[in-house]
Specification:
Elements (H helix, E strand, L loop, with lengths): L10 E4 L7 H11 L8 H9 L2 E7 L5 E9 L5 E8 L8 H13 L7 E2 L6 H5 L19
Parallel strand pairs: 4-5
Antiparallel strand pairs: 1-2, 2-3, 3-4
């Protein structure tokens, strides 16, 4: 898939890390995102600092309404994570447009695959070309307790 879904009028996407509203992103993730409930602010800030960050902003107010980050070496590996759309703007295609923008920003690097994990948003990602792992039995993880 090569088409990038359009972003709703009145919003813009930026990869400028200085625009990330760190307090808002932390509040979203640590209180409302099942994968990050209770995440400490310091840990979230380190994650932002070490990642390629994407924000969606209202063009008039400048307020951030969505966020995603990518852990990547910009050559061989990318992991899309912490995708979050504020409940007040859900249903406008903002999440789909955001993930599409991430995909297109990473495309020139020649990365073979972008990984992600989701419990409940498979449909959003499938629209953008994501699919289950072809050989999940070849993947492993090391879990720290």
């Amino acid at each position: 898939m090569t088409d990038t879904p359009p972003l709703a009028e009145g919003y813009e996407i930026s990869t400028d890390p200085d625009r990330v509203d760190r307090e808002r992103v932390h509040r979203w993730l640590s209180t409302d995102a099942y994968w990050a409930i209770g995440r400490a602010r310091e840990k979230q800030d380190r994650a932002v600092d070490g990642s390629l960050n994407f924000g969606v902003y209202e063009t008039v107010s400048g307020d951030q309404v969505a966020y995603a980050r990518v852990v990547t070496d910009r050559a061989t590996f990318a992991w899309l994570c912490d995708v979050y759309v504020d409940p007040s703007v859900r249903g406008k295609g903002i999440g789909t447009a955001l993930v599409g923008a991430v995909r297109e920003r990473l495309r020139p690097y020649g990365i073979k695959r972008i990984l992600l994990a989701t419990h409940d948003a498979h449909g959003v990602y499938e629209k953008l070309g994501f699919a289950p792992l072809e050989k999940p039995d070849q993947w492993m993880a090391l879990y720290f307790q």
